Amino acid sequence: MCSIKSRRLRKKLYLDEFAVFGFEISCSIGAKSSDEFDLFLDQLVSFVEDHELIMSGGGDVKEFNAFICSEHRYVSATKEDSDNIKTWLNNNEAANNIVVGELVDANYGI
């Protein structure tokens, strides 16, 4: 991806110093009903939003997968953000088999 491009073009394409990073999460859910899953999801969304992050993904009463990144333009999620999410998931009784991925380029997956 790195090639000689103007600053304006690098910014428009989210390249180099304008790259935005995020991380994937996945876990098994021990919900017995869709109401329990909805409660888990509501709590997770609230936690994510409280940390000025956004989440895209989904799941059901058995498993959940999502990608998380910053809600601000040209701002990346941090290792601290992924650690906070992992801690929250570990402390939640509904989540098992938790996997939090490394930071990757949110636009190009590198």
Could you write a compact summary of the structure shown?
It is built from three helices and five strands, in the order H-E-H-E-E-H-E-E. It has 110 residues and is an alpha+beta fold.
Describe the protein.
Helix content is 33%, strand content 29%. The relative contact order is 0.26. The model has no long low-confidence stretch (mean pLDDT 93). It is of the alpha+beta class.
Protein topology:
Layout: H1 7-12, E1 21-29, H2 34-50, E2 53-59, E3 63-70, H3 79-91, E4 95-100, E5 104-105
Antiparallel strand pairs: 1-3, 1-4, 1-5, 2-3
Which features does this protein show?
Alpha-Beta Plaits, 110 residues, five-stranded antiparallel beta sheet, alpha+beta, 3 helices
Q: Estimate the mean pLDDT confidence.
A: 93
Q: What structural class is derived from the secondary structure elements? A: alpha+beta
CATH fold call? Alpha-Beta Plaits
Indicate the proportion of strand residues: 25-35%
